[in-house]
Amino acid sequence: MTKADTKTKLMNAAEHQVRQKGADGFSYSDLSAEVGIRKASIHYHFPAKSDLLTAIMARYAKEVLATLDGYADQIPTPREQLIAFIAFYRSALEEGRKLCLCVALTVGRDALAPETRQEISRFRDALQTWLQTRLEQLSCGTRTGNWVGDPQAIGAATLALVEGAQLAARSTADPARYDAATKCILDRLRQQ
Amino acid sequence: MTKADTKTKLMNAAEHQVRQKGADGFSYSDLSAEVGIRKASIHYHFPAKSDLLTAIMARYAKEVLATLDGYADQIPTPREQLIAFIAFYRSALEEGRKLCLCVALTVGRDALAPETRQEISRFRDALQTWLQTRLEQLSCGTRTGNWVGDPQAIGAATLALVEGAQLAARSTADPARYDAATKCILDRLRQQ
DNA sequence: GTCTATAACTCGATAGAC
DNA sequence: GTCTATCGAGTTATAGAC
What we know:
Chain A has nine helices and no strands. Chain A is mainly alpha-helical.
């Protein structure tokens, strides 16, 4: 675990770069410097850049969804699970310098390979389903507490909110902007 | 008005390109093809690419804020002004293929010139102030209707929501995802 | 698996004619 | 203002030695 193999090191470096600078913002040369391998050697592991992007997006989706499923097991109430979700997206910022991988990739969507796009779509759908399930358990659909709307609509809004809040934080490299944008929904969850 | 001068044509083309592909996703070569001028000639109008990016961001901010101030004059109630704001961000999508310019630029923020970053910050602050003013007029701070929270927090959340909703639409090039993500807040505004 | 070397291309930017 | 011509550096990607 302490010494990752080269392929893993490359994926770690690539994910870091994309989330900080976007898919067009880094090159094999950057990875070469970060990992300590000649840039031509990277092509042995990932023949084309699109292969690398697809691989890191697939891994990212798997890891994030595993984390969220862990919340479902370890955290007792859907209310607290949703609070943990918002905190998780907060922690992904790392001082306001990073974004969720799928946000970082979405801006340059036109230039992505079809397989990469598909990974992004699947991930977003899975995220929204996860949120929707928790919201259904809150039975907010029947206007319990101070919620309005059906779980599907609230799920879509919640996902948009945390991604938008990440952008806000990124705009001035200040995580406090994430907190400001998510204050309302967190207060509402805590009151419930 | 029908025949824009070259400088304006270049800015129009650049804005279109950035909002569709990001700052790193287009080149002077693309502009050359779109406007019908040799790429070396572009440097006469905008010596460096950063000059062009700063110019289109400044123009974008001015135009959008003028539109919103127009809403304040022409639309009677703050409630309807806010609904118009959400519709405006919807119209900016253009079939799910475009983003708000400041969202498109924020991902690659690290590589932007300081002047461009400053234009983005100023614009975001002005947007949030505009939203906050409308929300104060709704007197939602005192928990009127089914709102919760103070105008400042709701303003930050609303901005994050519409920007996140644009990303959702972009993820599958489908504007319906914008509608899904903004359904809750629109319903709440309409009920009020 | 990693290396050197390089092909083939695109990028932003400049010089100077007209 | 727009052009041709070009520079130097960057990019992804490949070939072949070790």
